[in-house]
Amino acid sequence: MRKKLQEKKKQWMEWLTGLFARGKELIKTVREHMAELSREQELEERKIQALKRMIRYAGELLLVLFVFCALMQHVWIGQVQGASMRPTYQDGQFILLLRGKEYNRGDVVGVEYSAGEEKTTLLKRIIAIGGDVVSCKYGQLYVNGQKISESDHTVGKTSDIPAQTVPDGSVYLLGDNREHSMDSRSFGCMSCEDIIGKVVH
């Protein structure tokens, strides 16, 4: 009887040991699956984060492009050619022009000048605006009968200019290098519609 009980006990112990071993294997398998699932979830989260970053960067790039295009509607970048605006601007110097609707005396502007079929951009200073009377005698410039002092930004002597009234919507232009400039003394007043923009200092 005792021998049978011992055998029965041994069988139960073997069964419990086997069950415990299978339980350990099952737990190990579950842990491995959980770890793999966690890695997959982490990888998926990384993909989602990377996608979010790409979307954010794309949005920022589109915003930059939009702002750039908007600015280019109002900003023009050019390069000075020639010596007609010396000493204020030198040949080869890059300038930034801001498009606007109103321009004042003293503004340096870029204008589109047409000589026959050829078009070129000139850089000149506005001396008088629509309605002004401009003239020059013996090198002294007058606007509306008032002497204009320009020694701080001009070189050379200004040739005589017969008194004339600037038409509305037009400007009278001179280069700062008065003896080496093609300007309104040659081609007359320019329409404000031909102004590309004002130089931004």
Describe the structure.
By secondary structure, the chain is an alpha+beta fold. It folds into two domains: 73 residues; 124 residues, Ribbon (Umud Fragment, subunit A), CATH 2.10.109. The protein is built from two helices and eleven strands. A seven-stranded antiparallel beta sheet has the order 1-2-11-3-4-9-10. It has a four-stranded antiparallel beta sheet with strand order 7-6-5-8, with no helix packed on it. The longest helix is centred in the first third of the chain and has 71 residues. The protein is rod-shaped, with a radius of gyration of 42 Å. The model has no long low-confidence stretch (mean pLDDT 85).
Helix-strand string: HEEEEEEEEEHEE
CATH architecture tag of the largest domain = Ribbon
Give the CATH class of the largest domain: Mainly Beta
Count every beta strand, where a strand is a DSSP E run of 2 or more residues.
Answer: 11
What ranges have pLDDT less than 50 throughout 5 or more consecutive residues? Answer: none
What best-fitting shape do the alpha-carbon axes yield? Answer: rod-shaped
What is the CA-CA span between the terminal residues? 113 Å
The neighbouring-strand order within the major sheet is 1-2-11-3-4-9-10
What's the main sheet like? 7 strands, antiparallel
CATH overall fold name of the largest domain:
Umud Fragment, subunit A
Radius of gyration: 42 Å
Question: Which labels suit this protein?
Answer:
201 residues, alpha+beta, Umud Fragment, subunit A, 2 domains, seven-stranded antiparallel sheet, four-stranded antiparallel sheet, 2 helices, 11 strands, rod-shaped, Peptidase_S26
